[in-house]
Amino acid sequence: MLIVVDTLRADHVGAYGSGRDLTPQMDALASDALVFRNGVAASSWTRSSMASIFTSQYPTAINVLGRTDTLSDDLETLAETLTSSGVVTLAVSTNRNAGAAFGFRQGFERFEHRFKLPRRGYPGGAQMVPAEGVTEAALRLLDEVPPGQPFFLFAHYIDPHEPYLEHPGLLAEPEPPGRFNGSTAELKQLDALPPRERTRADVARIRHLYAGEVKYCDVWLGALVDGLRERELLDDMLVVLTSDHGEGLWDHGRRGHARDLYEEMIQVPFIVRFPGAAAIQPARIEGFVSHIDIAPTILGAFGLAIPGEYQGRDLGLVARRGELDRLGEFAYSEIEYARVSFESVSDGEQKLIRNRSNDQRAKPVQYVVQEGDTLAKLAERLIGYPSPETAILDANPGLEEPGTPPDRIVIEPGTVLNMPPRRRRKADDDLFEWFRLATDPREKLDLSHTPLGETTLLRDVLNRFAEDNRARQVEGTQISLDDLDEETRAELKALGYLDD
């Protein structure tokens, strides 16, 4: 079974360090599994990531990058390989970006995506199938599989993706009193506000709603695992749990995803529970793994050969060879969507993000000081400066208080400040951001304004990934968004992928 929890940030999962008790069911699954601490998404939006999961190749190699790209019939998907080998292939799909219209149905014998199940949503918005419905549909499909027949089931939970629905009483803390709810319409209004008009309460409420969706999904994921156990299937199954990408919650000034490759976007949970017969002991693994490792791991569990075009590894084979401590040294991701094009590479200590489109324009913004703001707190919003407090003071003459350390300067609420833009540096027709993750895990200090000599190895690795993907690239296929059926269009609009 492959379980994908859409838009789930790794830092909201207890097994990955969250202390909020949002995911007790996922954590219980992780306690009996290999937990890969550095699971990295192939991309920061659904279609590219899911295409990489089902083909074990990066988005450029399979030419699934933009909004109109589809999974080509010429590519052999994981489901096609399994079906041709006698495995029953089943899917419960709730995100139309990885749905039938874009080629993801190919190879599946059963592909549930038009549900006669209760849906939830905000008035006036499309209604989505919640986690309860996914669990119900998945268990129903399993009950139709003949006893003893090998099967593969893909279950895609959509809940943490926008719109963020309310789940009263599910979280221990009360809901903050922000001005916006989690509907796509109101989220767009909030996203469009100048930063100075977005309050802390607004942000806190949306973060609370997102966390509630994670908790709600976890409850029903636990019901799914309980259902497997009751059917005496769990001990004989490989279970892979991951997310297609994370979500920005204003970590770098914006909410949502599909716009950049910061850690909150690409660090995803990556949990692999092997069947008892595999005799692979639970452990926490530090090496890098990627979406491209999922398909070969699943094929390996069935004892099937790994296609030569796969770029990933069979993690079960790696474990049996005792080589889990020698997993990949580098993590690669890419995103090409809505006029942005980035790729990134990290060795765990340092990270480079290259802007392939090279068209960013940095503009200064204004910010209205909130109650309790200090210069130090405001400096956390300013990315890319070695001395952000000094940069703010330089942009706001008269703000400095003689004899007062910058980190103790308190600014009167309502004061309008000039916030300097993110600093960017152009070099050799490439635009880089450079972070030392070892000391700056939240990627707040972009070092690309300094000489890039120390990043020579990472740049070489980034170039090798890019060149290999371009060399592999197949001819892509596209679809006109106007040709999508009304139900698909409505759901893509509800998820924020289509405008009016």
3D architecture notes:
The protein is an alpha/beta fold. It folds into 2 domains: 337 residues, Alkaline Phosphatase, subunit A, CATH 3.40.720; 123 residues, no CATH class. It is 28% helix and 18% strand. The protein contains 14 helices and 19 strands. The strands form 5 sheets. An 8-stranded mixed beta sheet has the order 5-4-6-1-7-10-2-11, with helices on both faces. It has a 5-stranded antiparallel beta sheet with strand order 12-13-14-18-17, covered by helices on one side. Strands 3-19 form a two-stranded antiparallel ribbon. A hairpin with a 2-residue loop joins strand 12 and strand 13. Helix 5 runs parallel beside helix 7. It is globular and about 80 Å long. The chain starts with a strand and ends in a 6-residue tail after the last helix. About 1% of the residues have low confidence.
What would you report as the Rg, rounded to the nearest angstrom?
Answer: 23 Å
Indicate the proportion of strand residues.
15-25%
Uncertain residue segments: 424-429
How far apart, in Å, are the first and last alpha carbons?
Answer: 37 Å
Helix content: 25-40%
Looking at the overall shape, the CATH architecture of the largest domain is 3-Layer(aba) Sandwich
Total count of domains: 2
Tell me the major beta sheet.
8 strands, mixed
Task: Give the strand order, joined by hyphens, for the main sheet.
Answer: 5-4-6-1-7-10-2-11
The CATH superfamily name of the largest domain is Alkaline Phosphatase, subunit A
CATH class identity of the largest domain: Alpha Beta
Which word captures the global form? globular
Number of strands: 19
Provide the residue-averaged pLDDT: 91
Number of helices: 14
CATH topology of the largest domain: Alkaline Phosphatase, subunit A
Class per helix and strand makeup: alpha/beta
